[in-house]
Amino acid sequence: MTRLSRQLREDKALRDAALALVKADLAHLRGDLTGKSLGARFVDRMSEGAVDVFEDAVEVADDHKGVLATLLAAVVLWFARNPILSLFDDRDDDDEDAAADGEYEEYPGAPEQEGR
């Protein structure tokens, strides 16, 4: 047996092994494609991605609890800003009623407007 015939036999064996791998991959791919619809595969991939993002967010939140607490407090204070500011309002209720009725000028020395 010459070196050339031995090399040919080895190359054919490699070719046959590669063909068997390609056929196995195609069979596996066909099984995956027929098992689920396009929508189901899309939902699976999106849910896997969402789970990964959620796990990363939980990990970051565990590492930065102080920053997360500060951010949460800032959001709560932002939404509660009007009731909090009303506690520090120094105007009397009588002044507010008078201002609403237009009984006094907006600033001292303002000229009277006709039609009031």
Report what the structure shows.
This protein is an all-alpha fold and about 120 residues long. The chain has a domain at about 1-35. Helices cover about 80% and strands about 0% of the residues. It contains 5 helices and no strands. The chain has helices spanning about 5-35, 40-65, 65-80, 80-85, 95-100. The radius of gyration is 38 Å and the shape is rod-shaped. The termini are far apart. The model has no long low-confidence stretch (mean pLDDT about 85).
Strand-helix topology:
Layout: H1 3-35, H2 38-63, H3 65-79, H4 81-87, H5 93-101
Apparent shape: rod-shaped
Helix content: over 70%
Instruction: Give the number of DSSP strands.
Output: 0
Oligomeric state, counting identical vs distinct chains: single chain
Mean pLDDT over the full residue set: 83
Low-confidence stretches: none
Q: Helix count, per DSSP?
A: 5
What kind of sheet is the major sheet? Answer: none
Query: Roughly what fraction of the amino acids lie in strands?
Result: under 5%
What is the radius of gyration?
38 Å
Distance between the termini: 119 Å
Query: What's the SSE pattern?
Result: HHHHH
Class of secondary structure makeup = mainly alpha
In short:
This protein is an all-alpha fold and 116 residues long. It has helices spanning 3-35, 38-63, 65-79, 81-87, 93-101.
Name a few traits of the molecule.
116 residues, mainly alpha, 0% strand, rod-shaped
